[in-house]
Amino acid sequence: MTTGVRCSANELRYGVYEGVITRLYKMLNGVSNHEALNCGGGAESDLADDLAARLLLAAKRLESAGVSSADGCVDYSQVARSEAFAEYVQLTQRLRAFDLQSLTTQEERKAFWINLYNALVIHAVIAYRPARSIRAVRAVFDRAAYVVDGLRFSANDIEHGILRANAGHPVFFREQFAPDDPRRLFVLESLDARLHFALNCAARSCPPIRFYDAKLLNAQLDVAARSFVNGGGVVIEKATRTIYLSRIFSWYARDFGSALFGYRRAAQLVLYAAQYLDDAELRQYTADRADNMRVRFLQYDWTLNG
User: Fold this and answer.
1) What is the arithmetic mean of pLDDT over 123-128?
2) Which pLDDT belongs to residue 275?
3) CB 81: neighbour CB atoms within 10 A?
4) CA-to-CA distance for 90 and 112, rounded, in angstroms?
């Protein structure tokens, strides 16, 4: 298995800010806090503040190089051979010296981290080469990481720490970043649940890969939510008054106003999903019966989206 390059001491300013359980988990799964996919090579950021814009353009070229517009599947072999991927990998090395505080608005920060997550997952599939599912790579969302501004951010750190306002992984019921962790400085001020329709985890049941522009972000996230809900993420069966929701709604029930993985305050999940239904009659039908709908969760297909 190809792994991330081990970062040298001068490439990281990351100390040990993790609890005993996290350190034990990483040790048992062979995850090193000194390993990242963008270590090695030149890191001088002569691109200054336009690095985020350059990364967005490079990520969009990645999308054009091997992502099917019809079904969202990725030809990872084609992407790996493309000039777009070579350019993107080179740019990620600049992230090590990138000043995160140059991202001044919430929209800039949110778009930057969503895009980085989606590109990191593509990079991880190419680097680790799972045959059938990204989950075949042990602890992949903790292993796959970039060093940004001298700090290591794994896919889990980006999702559960930065984008979900430090809510932490839903299974562990703790914050992602401890109080003395310097990465807390970059946590978003609030959690936007639409991000769950924008992040792609390299599985067939994930939302399709897209990259986002800070200036258009609100409209783009609405489109992502509608696309996911109407594209199979929500199925309504009127005959039995049952709503079938993507497992995402269960895993992140708290983000949608529910609790206990959707088994408490389930009506909040129904109302959240209903607002994005394209069919006006079905939208009204579902919203009016939110308290009385049977909520079920769809099986999640972790097969690689390639």
Assistant:
1) 96
2) 97
3) 14
4) 17
CA–CA gap between residue 253 and residue 167 (Å, rounded): 12
Q: Which residue has the higher pLDDT, 48 or 103?
A: 103
Give the Cα separation of 96 and 269 in Å (integer).
39
DSSP symbols for 262-293 = GTBSHHHHHHHHHTT-S-HHHHHHHHHTGGGP
- 43 contacts 93 by C-beta, under 8 angstroms: yes
Cα–Cα distance measured from residue 196 to residue 251, given in angstroms and rounded to the nearest whole number: 10
Beta bridge partners of 152: 147
Q: How far is CA 243 from CA 144, 180, 270, 290, 306, in A?
A: 35, 42, 8, 9, 29
How many CB atoms within 10 Å of residue 132? 10
CA distances from 300 to 73, 76, 204, 229, 250 (A): 16, 21, 8, 15, 11
Query: What are 212-227's pLDDT values in tens digits?
Result: 999 999 999 999 999 9
Q: Report the C-alpha gap between 81 and 69 in whole angstroms.
A: 19
Closest CA to 102 of 162, 48, 166, 159: 48
Strands 35-36 and 5-6: antiparallel
245 membership: H or E segment, kind and range: strand 242-245
* Mean pLDDT value of segment 58-64: 93
* CA angle, residues 105, 107, 109, in degrees to nearest 5: 70
Residue 1 binned pLDDT confidence (cut-offs 50, 70, 90): very low
CB burial of 33-69 (b: ≥16 within 10 Å; e: otherwise) equals bbbbbbbeeebebeeeeebbeebbebbbbbbebbbee
pLDDT in tens, 228-258: 999 999 999 999 999 999 999 999 999 999 9
Alpha helices in the chain (DSSP H): 20-28, 51-66, 76-81, 83-94, 106-128, 140-143, 155-156, 217-228, 247-251, 266-274, 280-288
Half-sphere CA count of 273, side-chain side, radius 13 A: 34
